[in-house]
């Protein structure tokens, strides 16, 4: 079990190890990463590493949990300052895209966790979903989203929107395929001026928010009855 530092210096050392471990796992992958690579990059001895973590597996899981905690704090801070639920959605999505632009390791670590620590991957999504569901339930009670919106289904579906949009425009870049080549007729070159300050171009955020707003809007055209089923 990960040890809790007893001193301020120990807290800094543990945080440094986690920071470097994040970079090593993201850059090399779990199987090619090693405690030696982590400690050398962090500038600490292996004995110091074992004061805080018992194994490579444990530090990997702590890295994933740390990223989860940080991205949730970023989204909560942004969405909590919004005036209503739809504004909170936009602020939360923007914060997520900005975080992933600044911390691309989030995607890389969670993709590895699917095979290395599936229970941590599930915890990652469940922790995000829990806060999301609570926010949607509160918004529904205030009439800010449709009364027929299922908060749990909506939360997981909208998390999928954020995940995929972030992968396409943040992780892969504007116009680039995963292999680094561009779309037909394109160069696949990085965006001029570097990453977008909000993680995705404003037009992409607008398009994603249009889907979100239509899904959650309190005044929508009633669904027609399903043939042979219940309305």
TrEMBL record:
SUPFAM superfamilies: Homeodomain-like (SSF46689), Tetracyclin repressor-like, C-terminal domain (SSF48498)
Residue ranges of coiled coil: none
Top-level taxonomic group: Bacteria
Domain annotation HTH tetR-type: ranges: 11-71
Family annotation (InterPro entries): DNA-bd_HTH_TetR-type_CS (IPR023772), Homeodomain-like_sf (IPR009057), HTH-type_TetR-like_transc_reg (IPR050109), HTH_TetR (IPR001647), Tet_transcr_reg_TetR-rel_C_sf (IPR036271)
Transcription listed as a keyword: yes
The species this protein was found in: Georgenia muralis
DNA-binding region in chain numbering: 34-53
Entry keyword set: DNA-binding, Transcription, Transcription regulation
Signal peptide: none
UniProt KW DNA-binding keyword: yes
Protein name: TetR family transcriptional regulator
Region span, Disordered: 176-199
Molecular-function annotations in GO: DNA-binding transcription factor activity; transcription cis-regulatory region binding
